[in-house]
Amino acid sequence: MVQNPNHYVNDTSLMYEIILSKGKGQLTKKAEYFFMLISEKTMEKITYKYRNEEERKDCLQHGQMRLFENWKSFDEKKFSKALPYITEVFKRGTMDGWNQMRNRKYNNKDNVRYISIESANEGRGLHNI
Fold first, then answer.
1. The whole model's pTM is what?
2. Which of 15, 48, 113, 117 is positioned for an S-S bond with 82, CB 3.0–4.6 A?
3. Cα–Cα distance between 129 and 80 in angstroms, integer?
């Protein structure tokens, strides 16, 4: 099977690695590599308006964390392709991180939140509080 050069991860290989990882109870090194590659390539296409590179990196890490927490929920009997599912989990994780940084959600006292020195106080910074 010839792989399209626009596709950076072969869906069949990704599906195989996820099924193998579920059998082992932990991600294989190749699955980890695929997840990191998917997250990096997806971040190149995401068009959220990040205030700075630090905020973009925070969203990337939030999406990766969500992906590594939830990879076991992929149901190979329900879905014939793994790449769209994994990409969507990652994108939702990045959006969740973006919402947290912009104070759009999460007023729950049980959640730990970090506030950027630069973006606090409606973008005027902490020194103007």
1. 0.73
2. 15
3. 52
- Within 8 A by CB and 6+ apart from 17, the residues are 27, 28, 30, 31, 34
**Token pair 């099924």: residue:** 19
Are 65 and 100 within 8 A, CB to CB? Answer: no
pLDDT in tens, the chain (129 residues): 444 444 678 999 999 999 999 999 999 999 999 999 999 999 888 766 778 888 889 999 999 999 999 999 999 999 999 999 999 999 999 989 888 887 765 555 555 655 555 555 555 554 544
Alpha helices in 1-129 (DSSP H): 11-24, 29-45, 53-70, 83-101
Distance between CA 81 and CA 74 in Å, rounded?
10
Q: CA-CA distance, 114 to 87, in Å (whole number)?
A: 26
